[in-house]
Request: fold
Amino acid sequence: MNTPAARLRASSLAPRGPKRHAPHPAPGSETSRREFLKSIAVAGASALFGPEAAAFAQSQAGRRQWLIDVHHHILPPAYLAEARERVIAQGQGFLPARVLEWTPQSSLSEMDRNGVATAIVSVSTPGVWFGDAKAARTLARKCNDYAARLASDHRGRFGFFAAVPLPDREGSLREISYALDELKADGIGLMTSYGDRWPGDPAYAPVFEELNRRNATVYVHPTGPNCCRELIPFVPYVFTELPHDTTRAISSLLFSGSLAKFPDVRFIFSHAGGTMPMVAGRISRQSAQRKDLAAKVPRGVEYELRRLYYEVAGSANRPAIAALTNLVPMSQILFGSDYPWGHIGVTADAITRLGLSDEDLEAIGRGNAIALMPRWKT
Reply:
């Protein structure tokens, strides 16, 4: 089918010949950010509508908002009223003032400065679960209603991944139905763990059965599990335990059989998959030697990992991207910023220094997100 969306997907997925890399501007400069936006705008216009549109995009580059940011957080007033001290505690002394001072306008201003057309927002760690199911249900509903109003008030600028009150399964199933059917959320947001339970826990299977039935997009954000926050007291757990917990979450889904059992859930994992790209080969090799584990991943570990999606907030550096791109095709990599914990411009600038082709920059910056969430193609 030769539609614009199909041609864009084809440009993102098709094998490519040797890459030609243009020189990129100095790190951290306004010029580098503009060049990134210019390159993906031109590449995207060419893929969608041909060389004349690309020439027009060239003339308009620097004015057009183009990026889709899939790792962008909100702090609704109801959430801060409930979780302010927990958010501060999660910050481990590294919490920027802009986090607690977040407003919709601060997001929009940051997006406009850095060429983001649309941010798919979510609630960050510590999530909405604090031990009481009723309170978690109420807080999840307030956050999701707030996100839906944000999207309605600023059409085209915001989508959202809805919060659910896991480990409360019944409450989560109700919120999934409400968020996807009534609020038209782009997907569901989960944490990598809840206390000391990870998403592959059999108790969560009914939730993933429903998400699979709906072909839902599920964005998974890291958090610190109870077991591991004080393992090395003088090393803040946000340095190491957050990426490790992403690896634990993926591993739990692999070896519970959840990834094989629920193939229609489209998972997005944060920060280039945490440490998973570095240990994937070890996991694949050693699990193949154990029949009990191999049976849970009948198509193999690498097959399951290659079909997941990964965003690059905090990971747009050569070692992380080299590991990720040697594990998954370019079609599975998305742009994310971690705003307001991170600056959008940091990732947008860093990505221009990785030696990627214009086509790959366009795929990461926008095209792959559109293939996953087609309503943002306009």
In short: The CA atoms of residues 141 and 175 lie 7 Å apart. The chain has two domains: 29-64, 66-377. The two ends are 18 Å apart (CA to CA). Strands lie at 67-73, 116-122, 158-163, 187-191, 217-221, 266-269, 309-311, 333-334.
